[in-house]
Specification:
Blueprint (H helix, E strand, L loop, with lengths): L5 E4 L5 H4 L11 E6 L3 H15 L8 E6 L3 H8 L4 E4 L6 H10 L3 E4 L10 H14 L3 E3 L7 H10 L2 H4 L12 E10 L1 E2 L2 E2 L20 H12 L7 H4 E13 L1 H8 L12 E2 L2 E14 L2 E12 L7 E7 L3 E7 L8 E6 L5 H14 L8 E4 L4 E4 L11 H14 L8 H22 L4
Parallel strand pairs: 1-2, 1-4, 2-3, 4-5, 5-6, 7-13
Antiparallel strand pairs: 7-14, 8-9, 10-12, 11-12, 12-13, 14-15, 15-16, 16-18, 17-18
Helix pairs in contact: 3-4, 4-5, 5-13, 6-8, 8-13
Length: 436
């Protein structure tokens, strides 16, 4: 079996480190890191040192660091590995992906790959290049590995429980998702220090083109599993809007550690405060079903709080919802709400049958009857947390690298459809505000 050798390229986001939060079978512990010398690289090395030094299941990574300004060209020329891991600055990410593929290396890259519709041809080119060279180019869709997402997908596809999807309208969509993240947070047990460029929407991306990539992916993955979407006829962006989260200067300093705003953010300043356009609402349709997404960044969660997620799929027999809020103690929970009282016992019996059929794959998952609706009972062993999902994605990616023919054929067209929605949605929201 071919040994996998990782190369980490310009790790500007903590997701690059989370890929290495654990060790992998048949993966060389020696990892080459190519990046310019600066705070992004130092933060990445500190996180990996912490993983190696922890008392519980420490990692054993050995790093060879190539700190240089021409890091991309040197990486492509020297090629000390066969898998390039990318998580960081997003504006030129697709160019780095193309460079790695042209050099004959597989790519595991964090979202988003592109920020603007003009880069869709580059995305197609990258996926075509991977096909031509027998390589895998894969984006890190961690939300597919969250247990409530996996079970929600099973129930939405179960006609006796869910019925069929209600197509809805822009005002009452068949699918509604809301995701709320926070600028100030703790990751891997330490306060997260964000780089200044994170606040540049032309570098990091706006809400829909960044976090929203996960939501668009979940919609496609749940409604049309293993089906290829044709972007020319299956997806249509109807409307979009954007609004800022106002970040006071002292708050910006807390998050970045910088005393002053860089020149790249001056256009977004209003006095001493930063208008950070990190919130997007989009209405679009996929194969005739209306979808509405709200993607939001607030400054900091209230005490004891955390990121929240709401995902509502409206069926002709029931609604299937993931809720992650204060009532759920900020853990995602999965609910089934029958549409009519007369449907309640029928839906309950159908749900029982479905869960029984899932016991081989998800043993211990049950149901709690709350009188007017039903909540799935999920054993704690499935609650591995967001950070652990990066290792799950990486393991799946490595399986594809070893057996390229196991990568589902729908992944390529559905990536194109996904990034069409995110980039076109951001473009439309800016046009609505008269912004180029």
């Amino acid at each position: 079996m071919q040994e996998i050798r990782f190369i980490t390229l310009n790790p500007g986001h903590f997701h690059a480190a989370l890929v290495q939060k654990e060790m992998y079978e048949h993966v060389d512990p020696r990892v080459h890191v190519y990046a310019p010398l600066g705070p992004d690289l130092l933060a990445h090395l500190g996180r990996l040192a912490g993983f190696n030094a922890r008392s519980s299941a420490p990692t054993r990574w050995q790093l060879e660091v190539h700190a240089c300004e021409d890091y991309l060209e040197r990486m492509a020329k020297e090629k000390p590995g066969n898998v390039v891991v990318l998580a960081g600055r997003n504006a030129q990410k697709i160019d780095a992906i193309l460079t790695a593929l042209d050099a004959g290396m597989n790519v595991l890259a964090d979202k988003p790959w592109i920020l603007v519709p003009e880069d869709l041809p580059k995305l197609r080119k990258a996926l075509d290049r991977a096909d031509e060279r027998g390589l895998i180019a894969y984006d890190i869709m961690t939300e597919r590995y969250e247990i409530t997402s996996l079970l929600q997908r099973e129930l939405v596809q179960d006609e006796p429980t869910f019925g069929t999807l209600v197509p809805g309208s822009p005002e009452e969509p068949g699918v509604f998702m809301e995701s709320v993240h926070y600028l100030k947070k703790t990751v891997a047990g330490a306060p997260l220090r964000r780089p200044a460029w994170f606040f540049d929407v032309h570098q990091q991306g706006e809400a829909l083109s960044d976090v929203g990539t996960h939501l668009v992916d979940l919609v496609q993955w749940m409604l049309h599993p293993l089906e290829a979407l044709d972007v020319s006829r299956d997806a249509c962006v109807l409307s979009a809007e954007r609004w800022p989260t106002v970040v006071a200067k002292n708050a910006y300093q807390q998050i970045t550690g910088d005393t002053e705003y860089p020149v790249s953010l001056h256009a977004a300043l209003q006095g001493d405060a930063l208008n950070y356009f990190c919130n997007t609402r989009v209405n679009y349709s996929v194969r005739g079903a209306h979808v509405k997404l709200d993607v939001i960044w607030d400054f900091e969660a209230e005490a004891g709080g955390g990121d929240t997620h709401l995902a509502v799929f409206r069926g002709t027999r029931s609604r299937v919802e993931v809720r992650q809020g204060r009532d759920e103690k900020f853990l995602p929970e999965l609910y089934v709400i029958p549409n009519q009282t007369i449907e309640y016992p029928l839906v309950r019996r159908a749900l029982d049958r479905k869960l029984e059929s899932l016991q081989a794959e998800y043993p211990g998952v049950g149901v709690v009857d709350l009188g007017t609706h039903l909540r799935l009972s999920i054993p704690p062993s499935y609650r591995v947390g967001h950070e652990a999902h990066f290792a799950q994605v990486t393991k799946q990616f490595l399986r594809y690298v070893r057996r390229q023919d196991t990568l589902p054929s729908c992944e390529k067209p559905n990536m194109i459809a996904k990034y069409f929605v995110t980039t076109r949605g951001v473009e439309m929201s800016r046009q609505a505000k008269g912004i180029s």
